[in-house]
Design brief:
274 residues, mainly alpha, Vanadium-containing Chloroperoxidase, domain 1
């Protein structure tokens, strides 16, 4: 594998056309120093080049997406449609962040670091686009924050609406499943490692991945403000056949009467006032 790594990865072809823009964005000293330090480290860890090339290019995003989907499956299986809806909002927020990333990148016009440092080791094909922010770090931040958000949202609780003077009562599912907490921790590690990998392979400055991660986090949090509308949509959709996409079949709808209603008086069952 090492001869292949050296021949195919460490000397990728140059981009077809040169872009014009800023060589490095502030903080210039920090971006350059950390980039060069990691690049020096990369040059002395040739045994990791094959894995880091794949992880930085496609494996990292695939693993992040797999954990995100696994979290959705847990919400679907545990019959927590509001958690599933919140994850869908997180996915939408990640897509929004990718779109914003293109606008920010063309406004900042920061060139790839191997333009300013032509002798740097680059383990992936040299892209003909701008460096700031990193698309891969946007994916990492969006999917990571989406899973973290569903932990502290209370979306796993199912409540019966108040009826005839009774207070709103929790019916079931009051706590976040332990497996979701594990998945969130795994996604956080995978996402941060993807950001590290993008600098390790020589494709980005540290500021690029930090900016992409934060941009995605802000976008996901902003889209998640629509959760009241999403929860209302869940209450409308769940009793229908489409509700099976939010929770496994056989679940009682969120707004349903999940527990027997206590008797409030001695009125007969057939009393019209009942």
């Amino acid at each position: 594998m090492e001869p292949f790594t050296v021949a195919q990865i460490s000397t990728p072809p140059s981009p077809p056309a040169a872009l014009t823009g800023v060589r490095v964005l502030p903080p210039k000293g920090l971006n350059n120093s950390i980039y060069l330090d990691l690049n020096h480290f990369s040059q002395h860890t040739a045994w990791a080049h094959g894995f880091m090339h794949n992880y930085a290019l496609w494996l990292g995003p695939v693993l992040l997406a797999a954990v995100f989907i696994a979290t959705y499956v847990v919400a679907w299986w545990r019959r927590a449609p509001r958690a599933a809806a919140l994850l869908i909002l997180g996915g939408i927020g990640t897509i929004v962040a990718l779109g914003l990333n293109q606008l920010v990148g063309h406004a900042a016009k920061e060139l790839r670091p191997y333009v300013a440092h032509p002798n740097a080791l680059v383990l992936v094909a040299k892209a003909n686009d701008y460096s700031f922010p990193s698309d891969h770090s946007v994916i990492a931040g969006g999917l990571t924050v989406s899973v973290l958000l569903v932990i502290g949202s209370g979306a796993w609780r199912r409540r019966r609406p108040a009826r005839r003077g009774l207070p709103e009562a929790e019916a079931s599912g009051g706590s976040v499943p332990g497996v979701v907490k594990v998945l969130a921790a795994v996604n956080l590690v995978l996402g941060l490692f993807l950001c590290f990998a993008r600098v390790y392979v020589g494709a980005h400055y540290p500021g690029d991945v930090v900016a992409g991660y934060l941009l995605a986090a802000v976008a996901v949090l902003a889209v998640s403000l629509l959760r009241p509308f999403a929860y209302w949509a869940v209450d409308v959709v769940e009793p229908t056949a489409a509700g099976n996409t939010l929770r496994r079949p056989g679940a009682v709808p969120t707004g349903g009467d999940l527990t027997p209603e206590p008797q409030l008086g001695s009125a007969a069952v057939g009393d019209p006032q009942r």
